[in-house]
Amino acid sequence: MEYLDYIETILDRKDILSSNFNQKFCSDWTHIYKFKPLAVAFPRNTEQVSNLVKASKKFNIPIVPMSGNTGLVGGTFAENSLIISLEKMNSIIKINKGSNLVSVEAGVILSDLHSELSKHNLSFPVTFGARGSAMIGGILSSNAGGSNVLKYGNSRDLCLGIEVVLPDGRILNMMSELHKDNSGLDLKNLLIGSEGTLGIITKAILKIFPTPKNFFTAMICLNENQDPLNILRKVENKLGKEVEAFEYMPAFYVKEFYRLFPKKVKLFDRYHDINILLEVASNSDVMNDEDNSGTSILKNHLEEILSSFLDENLLEDVLIAQNDSQRKSMWEIREAAAEITVSRKPVVITDVSLPLDSVSNFINLVNKKLDHVEKQAPSTFVSHLGDGNVHYWVWPKNDDKLLHDNIVEIIEGIVYDLKGSFSAEHGIGIAKLNSMKRRKDNTAVDVMLAIKNALDPTNIMNPGKVFPKV
Ligand SMILES: Cc1cc2nc3c(=O)[nH]c(=O)nc-3n(C[C@H](O)[C@H](O)[C@H](O)COP(=O)(O)OP(=O)(O)OC[C@H]3O[C@@H](n4cnc5c(N)ncnc54)[C@H](O)[C@@H]3O)c2cc1C
């Protein structure tokens, strides 16, 4: 029996697509990677995923797991492969309010989870611009970060349990609700962030939190010679763990936003070199209590701090959002980063992680060194400064591969010297394979390969991604 006939014995015919693939199944989000899959399967439960994997192993057909397909490193490239789409496994299984946990199937879309939890005044803190499409399986597989890592950690920190289908089709049930479990190697955390190369995540148990009663959001513009990290520390000294986001955008980034979205109302009447989106929130009653004028204690504190910064000449300007619509306008600027990145082609994209006190140094060094390489190449960045993550990208004049490699090499060389990492939150996929080869410790790569070979000796699970030598 042919492979496609065989998988029709596993799934209903309407859950298999073997021609007329729509755009989502032929290209990644950036449109840098184009492909033609063999077929797309839409399993409805874990047993079907397991049987599809067993069939693909039997026929030696490569498998590419796909969730929202919003990844930025070509991880869903699926030439001649079976795409296993998780989109029909999209149930929120159980909200456990007592334990502050939610169990979900892997195909739940992030914004759907947010909406459902909000009905119970609960929230799952991972959030980023692609939340309307990205799904829990993809988010965990790429250990996504986002804008709230500063307060809550990344996806790995927010997940207690997962269920996974291994490359031989066995189901590994690690749907644990335990906060402590030292019974051997930590397989859950090995699978999270493995980008679909070690198995397919089918279910997860995630940590949830009471929704903050209020959010206070401000765009603060620092004086040129101020280090944003000092400002963050000063705010934290006053407000402690209430800082949810601290996102850094330079003037050229903001200009690019208004170039792309010219109808958006400008926040300030001129461009500032250092713009920080600062958000604080608390679910504690004490912080949300109101004074005689009806203003919450937290907002009062924030206003006091920002006004003292103005007095000390640390800031050029500041705007505190007065309502949800102003808050949304501020976040729109920050969350347009991915659209801005791909709005000009060609583009060289990096996503680097640095020790927090090296971020400003990194930006100065990169700006200086890149100037020698590409005099007229515009470049800009955006940074989750609170966790040391910088997305720095360059739009070179042409598609010359050597030039692109040179740009990456310069940026990653600086990162290496500053003891950072060439991949902060987007993962490796295909896009960072060269960086893995050049920059990752050889012994670490050998150990990773040994694990990959042990779990997937025939290399059918998302081949060609993450591991430089397989
Ligand atoms: C506008 C925009 C903003 C973004 N902002 C951020 C941000 O702030 N922070 C951040 O970290 N990332 C960000 N990203 C990228 C981010 O990594 C992805 O959006 C998200 O984590 C991937 O989820 P997805 O469901 O789209 O996964 P996909 O793109 O479908 O898959 C991603 C990888 O995981 C694998 N995979 C998918 N599902 C599974 C599964 N169930 N089991 C095993 N492997 C699987 C795929 O094979 C692929 O390798 C952004 C992307 C966009 C487009």
Task: Describe the SSE topology.
Elements: H1 3-7, E1 16-17, E2 39-41, H2 46-59, E3 63-66, E4 82-85, E5 92-96, E6 101-105, H3 110-118, E7 122-123, H4 136-141, H5 149-152, E8 159-165, E9 171-174, H6 187-191, E10 200-207, E11 209-210, E12 214-222, H7 228-239, E13 243-250, H8 251-260, E14 274-282, H9 285-288, H10 297-311, E15 315-320, H11 324-335, H12 337-341, E16 348-353, H13 359-373, E17 379-384, E18 389-394, H14 401-417, H15 433-439, H16 442-455
Parallel strand pairs: 2-4, 3-4
Antiparallel strand pairs: 1-2, 5-6, 6-10, 7-11, 8-9, 8-10, 12-14, 12-15, 13-14, 13-17, 16-18, 17-18
Helix pairs in contact: 13-14
The chain binds flavin-adenine dinucleotide.
**Total number of strands:** 18
**Percentage of β-strand residues:** 15-25%
C-alpha geometry: globular
CATH class of the largest domain equals Alpha Beta
Q: Indicate the multimeric state.
A: single chain
User: How would you classify the helix and strand content by structural class?
Assistant: alpha+beta
Q: What fold name goes in the CATH topology slot of the largest domain?
A: Alpha-Beta Plaits
- N-to-C CA distance: 29 Å
**Biggest β-sheet strands, sense, barrel:** 7 strands, antiparallel
Count of domain modules? 4
* Strand order, largest beta sheet: 15-12-14-13-17-18-16
Unreliable residue stretches: none
Helix fraction, binned, reads 25-40%
Question: What value does the average pLDDT take?
Answer: 96
CATH architecture name of the largest domain? 2-Layer Sandwich
Overall radius of gyration: 23 Å
Q: What molecules are bound to this protein?
A: flavin-adenine dinucleotide
| Count of separate DSSP helical elements | 16
